[in-house]
Amino acid sequence: MHRELHHPLIQSLVNTLRDTTIDAFVFRHTIKELTKLLLYEALCKEILIGKNVLTWDGEKQYSYINEEEIVVVSVLRAALPMHEAVIDTLRRAVSGFLGIKRDEFTHKSVLHYDRVGDCRGKKVILVDPMVATGGSLCDAIKVLKAKHAQSICTLNIIASPEGISAVMQAHPDVEMVVAKIDKKLNENKFIIPGLGDAGDRAYNTL
Q: Which residues are the active-site residues?
């Protein structure tokens, strides 16, 4: 299933990213703020566990998210600001990285780097800011399923309807939390209106 969020703050932050006059620092910062809001929504039904903690009034038991059972996986490099936002919030979560690049001629994705451990029994939070054709995300999900992920939730800033459809068709059991679903893909498979190349804009690469 997929969920598009419609909160005014989320829409304002997404539209900030569309502004090509903002610098890389503001772009990364805005991505991080959006990611925390997506994470908030993604974990809204998470089952909590009890932990004993030492408070000012002695040892007490309180409920917490079981961070040790969460694996945060990012699709390099555009997702790095999102990854940082998640692990800043879930400090005990495990990290993983996938290098997946879209071929500019065939528009198909190619996996060239895999640094994700066994995900058996783990909830995987897969972060990727842009879902255009959905090919890269589908490939990433396939890799994670082969590593025995118990469940997979994706956090995405911008997605096309075509990309959402492709992912849901291939992986209907995956939950997608999306800040904004844009209008369409153009003939070059770029999201319209989109926001440009997220990786280039985040890190001032040429």
A: 102, 106, 197, 200
Rounded (10°) angle between helices 161-170 and 135-146: 20
At 24, the amino acid letter reads: A
Domains and CATH numbers, the chain: 2-46+64-194 (3.40.50.2020)
- Maximal C-alpha separation, the chain: 64
CA atoms in the 13 A half-sphere facing the CB of 127: 30
pLDDT, one tens digit per residue, over 2-16 is 999 999 999 999 999
> What tens digit of pLDDT does each residue of 34-75 get?
999 999 999 999 999 999 999 999 999 999 999 999 999 999
Mean pLDDT for each 10-residue chunk of the chain (206 residues)?
A: 95 97 97 97 94 95 96 93 97 94 70 92 96 93 96 98 97 97 93 93 88
In one-letter notation, the amino acid at residue 161 is P
CB–CB of 150/109 below 8 Å?
A: no
Query: Which DSSP symbol is given to 149?
Result: B
The phi, psi pair for 43, rounded to 5°, reads -100, 15
Using CA atoms, how far residue 170 sits from 64, 139, 149, 153, 196, in Å, is 33, 10, 16, 14, 26
Can you read off the two tokens belonging to residue 181? 């679903």
